[in-house]
Task: inverse folding
């Protein structure tokens, strides 16, 4: 799969998720086979105002895969200015958010609200492309705003014409949010047929078989995985193997799962400080507990994590509940 100057093996990309896909999470995904990763979304307007938190969101550190910075905003000029401000960052690609359904994002005209105006989408891409120094610009979008505004094809065409190197399509409208069993593979397939640039399919990918089925039915060039990969970074290796016709790797042991969580939280503490990191680690830990015995006890313990050493008590509980 060719994305600008990046030549990548078919596989899965770690989708950007606010509050989750920090540098530690992205490194773990890359280590286990994600073909590239993307930061949490960064406000273009905040960047132009010199916001310090935005700089932390863009931090990556040593990584085993290319990574992209995701910008959100609704004004082409501001998006272009933000892209120029981060031109010296060592990122590999710049992703534009046209898919976030969160009320506070769409109320500003950004995120999935942009799906209502394909022309504006194209002008935003053009403004960003002009400031990236040749590094590829990608777009993350939805199937549309609602049932009456399924504009993914028009938006994808406008973005391609403006210089986008890839589009990722979440197969739900903004109105559908994250409702189960609502992903439209047809919407992804139509975008793939409408443009010549690579297309990633996104939505409800929870296994290698899900990824294979999406590629079979849509013709997409790869997939983007979000929530299912939290607590299960091994999913990237499984999907990568499946899409390239290789045997799937063995499932991780319980000990490997817990050690991955420990490593991730340690790196979070190193980069953010324990006070900030441990508050965020509670949600990360909950995902690692999926499918284990003693769910109620383990959830309670995850929600009480306050210090890095508390992980030892959590892991003791995991084994006390009979997990092996």
Result:
């Amino acid at each position: 799969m060719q994305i600008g100057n990046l030549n990548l093996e078919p596989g899965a990309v770690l989708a950007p998720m606010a509050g989750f896909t920090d540098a530690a999470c992205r490194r773990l995904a890359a280590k286990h086979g994600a073909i590239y990763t993307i930061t949490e979304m960064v406000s273009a307007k905040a960047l132009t105002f010199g916001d310090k938190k935005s700089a932390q969101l863009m931090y990556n550190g040593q990584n085993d895969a290319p990574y992209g910075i995701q910008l959100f905003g609704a004004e082409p000029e501001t998006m272009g200015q933000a892209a120029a401000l981060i031109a010296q960052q060592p990122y590999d690609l710049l992703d534009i958010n046209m898919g976030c359904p969160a009320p506070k994002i769409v109320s500003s005209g950004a995120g999935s609200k942009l799906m209502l105006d394909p022309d504006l989408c194209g002008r935003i891409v053009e403004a960003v492309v002009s400031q990236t120094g040749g590094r590829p610009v990608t777009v993350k979008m939805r199937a549309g705003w609602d049932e009456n505004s399924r504009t993914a094809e028009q938006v994808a065409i406008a973005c391609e014409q403006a210089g986008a190197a890839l589009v990722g399509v979440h197969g739900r409208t903004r109105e559908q949010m994250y409702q189960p069993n609502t992903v439209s593979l047809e919407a992804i397939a139509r975008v793939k047929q409408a443009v010549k640039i690579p297309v990633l399919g996104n939505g409800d990918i929870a296994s290698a078989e899900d990824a294979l089925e999406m590629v079979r039915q849509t013709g997409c060039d790869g997939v983007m995985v979000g929530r299912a990969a939290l607590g299960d970074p091994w999913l990237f290796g499984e999907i990568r193997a499946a899409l390239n016709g290789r045997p799937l790797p063995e499932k991780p042991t319980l000990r490997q799962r817990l050690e991955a969580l420990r490593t991730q939280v340690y790196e979070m503490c190193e980069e953010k400080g324990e006070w900030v990191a441990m508050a965020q680690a509670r949600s990360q830990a909950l995902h690692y507990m999926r499918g284990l015995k003693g769910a109620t006890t383990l959830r309670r313990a995850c929600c009480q994590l306050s210090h890095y050493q508390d992980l030892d008590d959590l892991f003791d509980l995991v084994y006390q509940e009979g997990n092996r």
Summary: The first strand starts at residue 2 and ends at 3. DSSP finds 14 helices and eleven strands in the chain. Residues 170 and 202 are 4 Å apart (CA to CA). The mean pLDDT is 95.
